[in-house]
Write a structure and sequence with these properties.
Rossmann fold, 4-stranded antiparallel β-sheet, 10 strands
Length: 263
């Protein structure tokens, strides 16, 4: 395995509820992710996927344990680590190109270089002809591609994606999965991708981290050594789908048992 880009060692997260009681949201997690790797986090609601992603992005700090990137503790957000959410987060009054340029301008990149990098990012996601349009003129899938272009324009070391395609229709979602894989294969940016969709996880991830709830924890890590692009109708894809679904059902059954005994 390549040198670790990300390392979590006993990383745990607790919150206080409305009564002031401490609740464990994420049990101690041990996980390493290599530079340039594409890893998907899957699991039911409440399993800690987004909490884990927020720890990696520096939006939250672990209650105990360690979260490291490039051998340094994560102490907060970093300009080279970009998060993409379900909500596109575009400025409606700015053009597509102006939205993409925003992060570059915030970093003080010279206008000529910023403009060139913005156009290059739009070309990468296939939106170079939409540069002068505004968000209200775009479909949901196009808006998400603008958000991806904005992230790629700043040339991040890490791309964190929190269910970015969940609100899109099935056809647009499949298309953007293919586009994201193409972009990742060109850039080799390290990607951590949260999804509820097991097929999406198998389509995208070199590894799939299956999480379980109450408290959130890693149930199993599955390697998916299939060549890209991955054909969903092939027997080898179906084999990984069955394996992941069986594990997912085990998670649900255990969660139901835990809920019954907690009453």
């Amino acid at each position: 395995m390549k040198m670790s880009k990300i390392r979590l060692c006993g990383a745990q997260k607790s919150f206080r509820n409305g009564s002031g009681e401490e609740q464990l949201a994420l049990a101690p997690v041990d996980l390493e992710i290599a530079a340039g790797e594409f890893v998907c986090l899957v699991g039911p609601s409440g399993c800690g996927k987004t909490t884990l992603l927020n720890l990696l992005a520096g939006f939250e700090s672990p209650s105990s344990g360690m979260v490291e990137i490039d051998g340094q503790p994560v102490v907060g957000p970093h300009a080279n680590r970009i998060m993409i959410f379900q909500d596109y987060g575009l400025y409606p009054w700015k053009s597509v190109l102006a939205n993409v340029l925003f992060g570059l301008q915030a970093r003080g990149i010279a206008p000529v270089e910023a403009h060139a990098r913005g156009l290059q990012a739009l070309e990468l996601v296939g939106l170079q002809t939409a540069a002068r349009k505004h968000p209200h003129e775009l479909s949901g899938g196009m808006k998400q591609r603008v958000a991806i272009a904005r992230a790629l324009a700043v040339q991040p070391d890490l791309l964190f994606m929190d269910e970015p395609f969940a609100a899109l229709d099935a056809f647009t979602r499949l298309h953007l999965q293919d586009e994201l894989l193409r972009i990742w294969q060109e850039s080799r940016t390290t990607v951590v991708f949260v999804t509820h969709d097991l097929d999406e996880a198998i389509t995208l991830g070199q590894r799939v981290v299956l999480m379980a709830p109450k408290p959130g924890r890693i149930q199993r890590v599955i390697d998916v050594p299939l060549a890209y692009p991955r054909e969903r109708t092939r027997d080898d894809f179906a084999r990984f789908r069955r394996e992941l679904y069986e594990e997912f059902h085990l998670v649900h059954r255990q969660a139901a048992v835990d809920a019954e005994y907690s009453i």
